[in-house]
Amino acid sequence: MKYQVFDTYGQMCRRAANLISAQIILKEDCVLGLATGSTPLGIYKILVSWYEKADLDFAKVRTVNLDEYCGIAADDPQSYHYFMQKHLFSKVNIKAANAHMPNGLAADIQAECKRYDALIASLGGIDIQLLGIGHNGHIGFNEPADVFSKDTTYVKLSEDTIRSNARFFKAVSDIPRSAITMGMQSIMCSRKIILAANGKDKEDIIHKAMEGPITPEVPASILQLHPDVSVLFSKE
């Protein structure tokens, strides 16, 4: 792992955006693995600004997102579909057909999980995957467990994750209890990974993931086995 510490969130976001933009410039039809949550917001804002200056072109870029809540429509403001449209897709020239996400309303969730894995494989895998990390070490919605999840899967969210997500919802009762998440195989087969985190409250879990034992109880610890991971951490 390559570990970089930044004084500010803005500096961290700029470094992550640099890595992603370099991938787009080197391979115009690259496959980006994208994440949601508060940490990527600054990264997407910078990428949009570079697109607006004509420094980046998303016309041939393909994307796959890590996860989506179950039971929420794509146009619901709390869905990850909506998040990506609001903060990135609607602001750049990516083609709608090239932006892929799990369908949390699929009638057959297990079939949807298999479809998503097949889709990622059909794209040739992920060139660069952006990840955040939860306070319990989850990446995507791969929660602490007895074993690492391999494939895209349906998950019941842990109480830690539900509490962390509470700030995005008006009431605790509104928070989804389940999701579809990309599995560890697709994440670990990405050619490059960026793990971005900010705030002192993430410092402890970052060190556990980077330096502690590799265990499914800290899902992000599996990244120690990947040959090209950039860990970007800002103190604020």
Nutshell version of this structure?
The protein is an alpha/beta fold and 236 residues long. The chain is built from seven helices and ten strands. The chain has a seven-stranded parallel sheet, covered by helices on one side. The protein has a three-stranded antiparallel sheet with strand order 4-8-7, with helices on one face.
CATH class: Alpha Beta
- Estimate nothing, just give the exact number of structural domains: 1
- Could you say what the CATH architecture is? 3-Layer(aba) Sandwich
Q: What percent of residues adopt helix (DSSP H or I)?
A: 25-40%
Please mark out the parts with pLDDT under 50 across 5 or more consecutive residues, or reply none. none
Largest sheet: 7 strands, parallel
Descriptive report:
The chain has 236 residues and is α/β, with parallel strands linked by helices. It has one domain: Rossmann fold (3-Layer(aba) Sandwich). Helices cover 31% and strands 18% of the residues. The protein contains 7 helices and 10 strands. The protein has helices spanning 9-26, 40-52, 80-87, 109-122, 159-165, 184-188, 203-211, and strands at 2-6, 31-34, 62-65, 67-69, 99-100, 128-131, 153-156, 178-181, 192-198, 229-234. The strands form 2 sheets. Strands 1-10-9-6-2-3-5 form a 7-stranded parallel sheet, covered by helices on one side. Strands 4-8-7 form a 3-stranded antiparallel sheet, with helices on one face. Helix 7 links the parallel strand 9 and strand 10 (229-234). Helix 1 (9-26) crosses helix 2 (40-52). The mean pLDDT is 95.
